[in-house]
Design a protein that fits this description.
There is one protein chain. Helix content is 30%, strand content 25%. It has helices spanning 16-28, 88-97, 100-105, 139-144, 151-168; strands spanning 37-44, 51-58, 63-69, 74-78, 118-125, 130-136. It is α+β, with helices and mostly antiparallel strands. A hairpin with a 4-residue loop joins strand 5 (118-125) and strand 6 (130-136). The longest helix is centred in the C-terminal third of the chain and has 18 residues, at 151-168. It has a single domain, classed as Mago nashi protein (2-Layer Sandwich), CATH 3.30.1560.
C-alpha cells in the first residue's frame, strides 16, 4: 500500500537558473526567444469594489495592459495594437531592473489567502519556462494577514506597477 502525499503542490517550482539564463539570452537577442515575457496580473475584491489589472511586456518590448478599479473609479486599457512600435530595449530595461537571482529565490506563499483579497501573480518567462509568484497585492491586506511579499518580489512588483502606470498614462495603478 502506497502512502499519500501530505500536501499537493499548487504551483511548479521555478527553475531559477534556466529562466534567468533564458532572459539574459533574450536581452542579447530578442529574436532568439520571441515568446519571452513578463506579466503582472492582479485581481480580487468584493462585488462593487473589485480590482482587475494586467500588464504584459514581451521580448520585442510590445506592451499591453488594462485596469478596472471599481473602488477608485479608474479604467484604462491599451492593447499591443495601441502601443508604439516595438522596442526590445524596453523589455531589456525592465528585466535589468529586476533582481532575477533574488526573485527566483523568493519564498512566496502558494495560496491560502483570506477571502476577497486582492491577489497578484507575477510571471517571468524566457519563452520556454515560466516562473510564477503569488502575493497579496493590497499592502494593507498583506500587513493584516502577515503575508508581505519578500523584498525581491516587492521590488519587482514596484518596477512593474511603475512601467504599467507609464504605459497606461495613470499616475498610480496599484490597488
Amino acid at each position: 500500500m502506497g502512502t499519500k502525499p501530505k500536501s499537493i503542490p499548487t504551483q511548479a517550482p521555478p527553475s531559477p537558473g534556466r529562466v534567468t539564463e533564458g532572459l539574459r539570452a533574450t536581452i542579447a537577442d530578442p529574436r532568439a526567444r520571441p515568446g519571452a515575457f513578463i506579466r503582472l496580473r492582479v485581481t480580487g475584491g468584493v462585488r462593487g469594489e473589485s480590482y482587475d489589472f494586467e500588464y504584459r511586456i514581451d521580448a520585442e518590448g510590445r506592451e499591453a495592459g488594462h485596469l478596472r478599479d471599481e473602488l477608485k473609479g479608474r479604467r484604462a486599457e491599451k492593447g499591443m495594437a495601441d502601443a508604439p512600435a516595438s522596442d526590445p530595449a524596453r523589455f531589456a530595461a525592465l528585466v535589468r531592473a529586476l533582481d532575477l537571482e533574488a526573485l527566483m529565490r523568493s519564498d512566496t506563499p502558494a495560496g491560502g489567502f483570506p477571502p476577497d483579497s486582492i491577489v497578484g501573480r507575477l510571471e517571468v518567462s524566457d519563452g520556454e519556462k515560466t516562473a510564477s509568484f503569488l502575493f497579496l497585492a493590497d499592502e494593507k491586506q498583506a500587513r493584516r494577514a502577515m503575508r508581505a511579499a519578500p523584498a525581491a518580489l516587492g521590488s519587482a512588483i514596484d518596477s512593474l506597477f511603475g512601467a504599467a502606470a507609464r504605459y497606461l498614462n495613470i499616475e498610480d495603478v496599484r490597488p
